[in-house]
Design goal:
The structure is a homodimer. Helix content of chain A is about 40%, strand content about 20%. Chain A is built from 4 helices and 5 strands, in the order E-H-H-E-H-E-E-H-E.
Amino acid sequence: MVLVVRGELRLTPGKVAVQVAHAAVMLSELAAKRPSSGYETWRAEGQKKIALIAANLGEMETLQRAARAKGLATVFVEDAGLTEVPPGTRTVLGIGPGPSEIVDSVTGQLALL
Amino acid sequence: MVLVVRGELRLTPGKVAVQVAHAAVMLSELAAKRPSSGYETWRAEGQKKIALIAANLGEMETLQRAARAKGLATVFVEDAGLTEVPPGTRTVLGIGPGPSEIVDSVTGQLALL
């Protein structure tokens, strides 16, 4: 599972952590409902999660299309906007879980958060 | 749901985000299995998550005991230790979800991450 943070928003570390956690919970719930998602394998292998950073929303939308084209689940976290950003702002793109080689083929060029 | 980060480890923001996400997924899975956990209410209200910081492991263990005494679910994330900390290091304490007034009575004195 990869969590891609929207760099241009310059969120605080605490805000980033919560947004990443939202994405992880949403993806886990999605995966648990889909028999072909590899959820059990992902859990058995320690629920691997990687946090990466993208420059902006456009880059994240391109990543989402690429992930979907490879059959990976994706979610966008939309912030309730009570603190640092306007309501509905997209903050984190979650991708996966899935086989490392497929996930890496989509997100392998991004920097670690 | 409250995620309490262990300040003394001085983890990088990316590492913190992933550890917080581990705790959130673990607690969500626990809560989904317990009919009395308030999981559905928590979900319906937007899966509220708050990231806080504690000074050290001793403070987190005290918080865990206090949370358990009030009937709240807790989890400790133990890092696999491949990068910043030795294997088995406890990095984040997750508490909840639960009624705000009960969660706040345990963690209300901690600083935001």
